[in-house]
Design goal:
alpha/beta, Rossmann fold, 7-stranded parallel sheet, 17% strand, globular, binds nicotinamide-adenine-dinucleotide, binds uridine-5'-diphosphate-glucuronic acid
Amino acid sequence: MNALVTGVAGFIGSHLAERLIKEGFRVVGVDSFTDNYPRRIKENNLRDLVANPCFRFIEGDLISLNLGEILKEVEVVFHQAAIPGVRTSWGREFNRYVTNNILGTQLILEACKDRGNIKKFIYASSSSVYGDCCVLPLSETTLTNPVSPYGVSKLAAEHLAVLYFKGYGVPTVSLRYFTVYGPRQRPDMSFHRFISAILTNREIEIYGTGEQTRDFTFVDDIVEANIQAFLHGKEGEVYNIGGGSKIRLIDVVRIIEEVSGRKARLRHLDSQLGDAKHTYADISKARMDLNYSPRISLYEGIKRHYEWLKKNLDIYQH
Ligand code: NAD
Ligand code: UGA
């Protein structure tokens, strides 16, 4: 089975490609090394993959690549490429979100249409499509009401995935990932920033009170959900993929203190425009259709993330 992973040099894409190869897939990976964080970090994410004969890397941009040619031999597409930051999606930056997240998705869907060889197209959507909602947990039928331009771009692309299924039969399945963490997490994200601050004896910067809550999801669970969506996902459908717990940010810091045996020093900054206050996934639909169930508890996941970052801190410190 041949798979295409877009955004393969990123945090989630690199883990997914490694797992697919373990499962016996041949993987073509595409990435344009966008500068949301340094290229050397993304090259490091690819280090084991490029040494594997079952992996082929194409450096290039979805906007300009000949996608039709790449898709000729491909049976499943895992579309992870996007500009991912929530808080940085305002102002002129939004142009990049429109181009990479909306136009990039439309171009690859367009290239997939009328291709009988594509058995499934999995789109990496996001909990950010929900925004702030007073009723938790969030189910797939909850009204989408993004509070960040990033969320708007992810929702637009999700709608395109559904439209290309309805209009052209592209077998799309969208997975709404809830804040993902674990080894190789992007350096702009909370767990990476908190753990590296505690490891280097710096203050942990908390946006707002720290009372905001998230349903954090370990990256291996996200990867498993992608495999299950390929096998069992219903075409044209959207699934929440969460980690199974809802925790205040301030309590995450307590767990990091326990795992590291170090005391955190906190500095509270202004809350950030675009941040949802609370997220918590109702995963009953994914449980039912995909047999999805998160396996890694938050404590165990933070332990693994901490141990990994402790060993690999130098990659991030240039
Ligand atoms: P990441 O930035 O680590 O990976 C994304 C990769 O896509 C990058 O390496 C980037 O260079 C590449 N890319 C972007 N635009 C491209 C283009 N036009 N052509 C080719 N490559 C391109 O981000 P991540 O955290 O691994 O996120 C992966 C996906 O999951 C994204 O679609 C993101 O929106 C989604 N997502 C992430 C999270 C999370 O918590 N990390 C949660 C919900 C959804
Ligand atoms: C994450 C990803 O970055 C998005 O790509 C993704 O789409 C989104 O999850 C999702 O679930 O859809 P976010 O929830 O903001 O977005 O993830 P974190 O960066 O881990 O932030 C979690 C919370 O910690 C936020 O409230 C944020 O404001 C806060 N934070 C973050 C801090 O207080 N300090 C920091 O240094 C970083």
